[in-house]
Amino acid sequence: METLTPTRTGKLEAGERRIHWEYFGTGQREPLCLLNGLAMHTQAWYPFLPGLLGDYDIVLYDYPGQGQSSADDAPVALPELAGYLVQVIDTLGIERLHVMGISYGGFVALEFARLYQHRLHTLALSGILLSHEELFEMYEDLSLRFYRSGEQAFDLYTHYLYEKIFGEAFVRAVGREKLEAMRLRFFERYRDRVHSLIRLTEAQDPHFAALDEQLPQYRAIRTPTLIMAGAEDRAIPAWVQRKICGILPDVRFVPVEGCGHVVYLECPDVFWGTLRRFTAAKRTSFDA
User: Fold this and answer.
1) pTM of the model
2) Residue 126 vs residues 48, 64, 259: alpha-carbon distances, Å
3) So where are the chain's domains?
4) For the segment 198-212, what is each residue's pLDDT rounded down to a tens digit?
5) What's the fold here for domain 8-287?
């Protein structure tokens, strides 16, 4: 992988927090923000940037507890995370951008669209839900129990997680040795800041508690939206993700065969190619 250096980087001052952000580009292309999944950080996107920078300028940032952002043990709110993106693009002088959120980043993306849709060109989501689902609540509760039960339990949880989130084809192609190396990097990155995973996960509770009340606001999101769902996703099944099509008014739903929860990594050609075509097709239709 070629060495990448952001064109600009900085830290937002958000009370006691410092939110790390990065910008790649010259201002000559429409910007695209890639919103991290729960256990990601900005550099997790780096392998894909060489293929994207010919089409977009790129905006990245770390949530509290991720990457180079501060990791204080304090409550986090999803509207806060969306608000950080507003501050970043205001700093960069960006009026509107494309936003793509995967997994946890989808929650942040949906909050950004609910609160700031006037700042959007398009919205893309993958591995996300916007409905009450008992199995997802059980999955969240189980994750929190592991996080709160000490290092040994957290290590065991990472084994469970890496078995759950990928599709069969990806695991066979990568092999167990490389998959274990990926799992170990995740464990080492968070073993001393598990509280960050707890705080980010807890932020979903008020989101779902207010979901019914806020549904009219989600239904009012006119931003053209793309949903790419892994057909083999066992964390948030494709049929659950499809329910968003009954809420947002302008949605294209694309099931991706042979993929689990992490479509951008498991089927990158399909994922990034579909995203490019979607953003290109929707640029003028939404502005009209």
Assistant:
1) 0.95
2) 16, 21, 11
3) 8-287
4) 999 999 999 999 999
5) Rossmann fold (3.40.50)
